[in-house]
Amino acid sequence: MSNTSAKYDVSQYSVDTLLGYIKGGSIAIPDIQRPFVWKAKKVRDLIDSLYNGYPIGYLIIWHNETVKLKDGSSAVGKKILIDGQQRITALMTAIVGQKILTENYEEKIIRIAFNPLAEKDDERFAVQTPAHVNSPMWISDISEVFKPDFDSFEFVNKYVEKNPTASAKIVNQAITHLSGIANCQIGAITLVPQLDISEVTEIFVRINSQGKRLNEADFAMSKIAADESYGGNLLRKAIDYFCHLAVDPAFYHHLELVDTEFMSSPYGTKMKWLKDTNDDIYDPEYNDMLRVSFMHQFGRGKLGDLVSLLSGRDFIERTYKEEIIADSFNKLNIGILNFMNEYNFKQFVLAIKSAGFISTKLINSMMTMDFAYTLFLILQNSNDVPKTEIKHYIQKWFVLSTLTGRYISSPESQMDRDLRSINAKGFLEFFRENEEAMLSDTFWSVRLVQNMETSSINSPYFNTYLAAQIFLSEHSLLSNASKVEHLITVAGDVHHIFPKEYLKKNGFDDKSLYNQVANYTYLDTTVNIAVGKKSPNDYFSQALTACNSNDQSGWTIKDETIFWQNLDENCLPHRITTMTAADYPDFLKERRVLMAKKIREYYEKL
User: Fold this and answer.
1) Cα 285 vs. chain centroid, distance in angstroms?
2) Which residues does 399 contact at the CB level (< 8 Å), separation at least 6?
3) pLDDT of residue 2
4) Omega of the bond prior to 284 within 30 degrees of 0, cis?
5) Based on C-alpha coordinates, what's the Rg of the chain?
6) pLDDT score recorded for residue 141
7) How many whole angstroms separate alpha carbon 77 and alpha carbon 67?
8) What is the pTM of this model?
């Protein structure tokens, strides 16, 4: 394959031929972007471009490998459209009258109206409205012109009867020009079967005029949707619908009306529970659902391998076999059902939330969540650890992965290595080795403290610190009423311990200095008002004095012991009561150490 020209060939197809191939199944449209995402006006513009002879861009078709059947014969691989699906779907609905799915999964036809008498500056094409249907001047639906039994002569005569001032010659020329769209040529680049997924992806990115990224999850979805032998289309719907329901539970009742066939399938039954849940801590997209389902069933971490397996790839013999396709679809189906299982999903989410990660604000990486759920499903379906200890290990691994950024850089490669290691050693040995290597004393006392030196409020280290406070059921700073958990989930916000305006007034006007996470804490509204722009020695002294008086100025802690305990819970050195702007650099250093100690205490209690 060193000769680049051998990686693809370029062909020209007429619109009529191309749509014929698609209707006949020679070229599959897998609906990677489903439902139809184009606005109706864009469909109109596409038809207008073809009418005027403008180019509409190349299609990209991926020719799958020839597969060996069980009887020893071979089946030529199907051609799958991987770029141009929106354009082809637009042509199918406008010219053929095929129904498309809206964002709400409702079927509709986008009808394009045509004005054969339009002059240079007049609108020639329009998205059909009642006005076009009722106007004798407009042909309300161009698909009529492309029907096999369309009689141009009869049509023109009837049109002129309704529009007496119209010229039959001009109308006939316009109709002939319109019907000529069927003969317009569209370029297609067909990628040869021998290309691997990474190469197909790279070619796609370089050719695609929009510069969008098509990843391995998209290719896997195209394989699933194009399958006609192993329930791929139903499986594709299951993934789509589950992800939609996770975000919009009310969508379930709509599905009951518009897709009764799917809702009566095992998938419909399995996801019924989603209609009554509003938990958004883990709202997976299709790539997350595919990844988790694939990883826990196949023991591999790279979705490119799933694409190959769904194509029948035998990695040892380097051939393509029908039985591998069948086995891969069966395993993926089991994986999807495991993923959407109510008990599995809810227990996993409960494990994450009971570790203190109660809000999406605290989740830094969906990849980390994906692997944690993968691990949950692996342990749930094995005897590596007692079922009562699964939550404990999921929590620890999630926090370890978050603190070490394990699945941030090259996540698929890391996941693949971890899965292979778990398969080879067993989970407990894998966990023990990584915990000892990654979370040494040096990590807790040096590296984590250094990582706290950041101004990013979305830092995984600061988020884990907040999760620790939630797990330990701690109160927000200088409050005896509000807990950190309540402020994060209801109406709280992060504020500066050394007030921003106070620091700027005293020479700390660099945003990266006054916005250090070690200077952040959650305050309830009453305390925040009482703090204002005061220096720490001022407002902490007032709060301490209020412990031994009837002070009603917003300080809710009335016991000195609780006051000092509250400082400890929020990782503040006790000398904060005397600190001024001059102490700010030392304060940051001290608090980072205290925050790291809290995170360690929290991790060891999980």
Assistant:
1) 4
2) 355, 464, 467, 602, 603, 606
3) 40
4) no
5) 31
6) 96
7) 6
8) 0.86
Residue 340: strand, helix, or coil:
helix
- What pLDDT score does 300 carry? 96
In this predicted structure, what is the pLDDT of residue 32?
45
pLDDT digits (tens, 9 = 90+) for 458-467: 999 999 999 9
Give counts: helices (H), strands (E), the chain.
Answer: 30, 15
**How far, CA to CA in Å, does 418 sit from each of 192, 301, 375, 525?**
33, 8, 10, 45
Q: Which residues of the chain have pLDDT under 50?
A: 1-3, 32-33, 211
The total of other beta-carbon atoms located within 10 Å of residue 558's CB is 14
The tokens describing 447, both together, are 């590296």
Q: How far apart are CA 318 and CA 316, in angstroms?
A: 6
Give the Cα separation of 211 and 528 in Å (integer). Answer: 47
Nearest in space to 174 (alpha carbons), one of 147, 137, 206, 202: 137
* Cα separation, 466 vs 364, whole angstroms: 13
Cα 529 to Cα 203, 539, 555: the distances in Å are 58, 11, 10
Residue 356 near residue 396, CB atoms below 8 Å? no
**Residue that has been written with the tokens 């309704």 in this structure:** 162
Query: 543: exposed, middle or buried (C-beta count within 10 Å: 0-12, 13-18, 19+)?
Result: buried
**CA-angle at 258, arms to 336 and 216, nearest 5°:** 35
In Å, what is the CA distance from 490 to each residue of 362, 484, 486? 14, 10, 6
Residue 478 makes CB contacts below 8 A (sequence gap 6+) with 523, 527, 530, 531, 540, 543, 555, 556, 557, 563, 566
Placement of tokens 């952040």 in the chain = 520
In angstroms, the CA 29 to CA 22 distance is 7
Give the pLDDT of residue 1. Answer: 38
**How far apart, in whole angstroms, are the C-alpha atoms of residue 313 and residue 413?**
20
**In 10 A of CB 131, how many CB atoms?**
11
Burial of 3 (0-12, 13-18, 19+ CB in 10 A): exposed
Strand pairing of 313-314 and 67-68? Answer: unpaired
How do residues 403-441 score in pLDDT, each as one tens digit? Answer: 999 999 999 999 999 999 999 999 999 999 999 999 999
In this structure, what are the phi and psi dihedrals at residue 186, rounded to the nearest 5 degrees?
A: -120, 130
